[in-house]
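Consider the tokenized backbone below.
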């Protein structure tokens, strides 16, 4: 096991591509049995970090241990104990669902009898038993994603790396995948997840880091981050175009006020009380909504609302 009981232990980890620093000296510890998340806008350094952890991209400098081993010296030994779910499915579309599992299992040197038994178990886990002898190409996106995750488990990995696991899936498929990932964690598999979906991070991650410009800008559980960087509730006020009230008319009503092109956000402990106070000052929005603060509020506060390509 790695330092401090961590399956992944990084200190001052740096990744450069020429003059460009993709990862700028981060510290990370992923504990056995937890689901750990990397959040951040495009170009934040999430994928570069995952590739170093997955032993497919060498670090430029700093310390990194995965499963207690050095990726530069022990890459093959580490990879044999990892499962990897890439952002884009790379299944063999001309093979059947079952054959995809069999072929991948043989890459790990597993016996044919073991792979056959394990494939049956994983087909049941992924709810693909009835499609086992179908070719991959006609499957839905959700089925392909479940097969990719099942394939990553063929070697009984201790650590599973998932890069944007539910991108492009409909809500039903996403929730089914969440259930499967939760079951894996219950069975002792450690998960590292990158995702752009804040609700996904709240559902799945015990702890996470928010990355921006190659650095970690916040770390904690979803509830800890919401408590630290946001408020209990958010009041959203919408107005007709170009007729929002002067911001000083709302001074002192909330802990923080954010003006967006289509609405005002007032961050407070009691959104209904703030709404009543705003009405008392003559503020009349077209619509109002009081909601709980979310990880998305934290993410946007820490990384900004400017689109990064």
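A designed sequence for it:
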């Amino acid at each position: 096991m790695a330092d401090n009981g961590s399956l992944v232990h990084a200190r001052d980890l740096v990744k450069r591509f020429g003059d460009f620093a993709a990862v700028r000296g981060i510290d990370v510890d992923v504990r056995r049995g937890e689901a750990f998340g990397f959040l951040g806008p495009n170009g934040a350094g999430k994928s570069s970090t995952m590739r170093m952890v997955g032993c497919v991209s060498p670090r430029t400098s700093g310390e990194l241990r995965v499963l207690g081993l050095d990726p530069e010296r022990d890459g093959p030994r580490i990879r044999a104990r990892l499962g990897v779910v890439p952002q884009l499915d790379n299944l063999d579309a001309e093979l059947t669902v079952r054959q995809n599992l069999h072929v991948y299992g043989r890459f790990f040197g597993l016996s044919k009898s073991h792979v056959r038994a394990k494939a049956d178990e994983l087909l049941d886990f992924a709810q693909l038993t009835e499609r086992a002898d179908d070719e991959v190409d006609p499957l839905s996106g959700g089925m392909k994603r479940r097969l990719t995750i099942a394939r990553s488990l063929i070697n009984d990995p201790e650590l599973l790396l998932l890069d944007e696991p539910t991108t492009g899936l409909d809500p039903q498929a996403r929730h089914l995948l969440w259930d499967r990932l939760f079951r894996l964690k219950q069975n002792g598999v450690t998960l590292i997840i990158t995702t752009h979906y804040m609700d996904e991070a709240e559902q799945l991650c015990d702890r996470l880091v928010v990355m921006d410009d190659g650095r970690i800008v916040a770390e904690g559980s979803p509830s800890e981050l919401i408590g630290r960087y946001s408020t209990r509730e958010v009041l959203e006020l919408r107005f007709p175009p170009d007729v929002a009230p002067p911001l000083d008319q709302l001074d002192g009503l909330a802990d923080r006020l954010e003006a967006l092109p289509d609405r005002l956000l007032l961050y407070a402990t009691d959104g209904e009380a703030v709404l009543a106070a705003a009405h008392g000052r003559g503020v009349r929005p077209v619509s109002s909504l009081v909601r709980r603060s979310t990880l998305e509020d934290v993410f946007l506060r820490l990384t900004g609302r400017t689109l990064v390509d």
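The longest strand covers residues 6-17.
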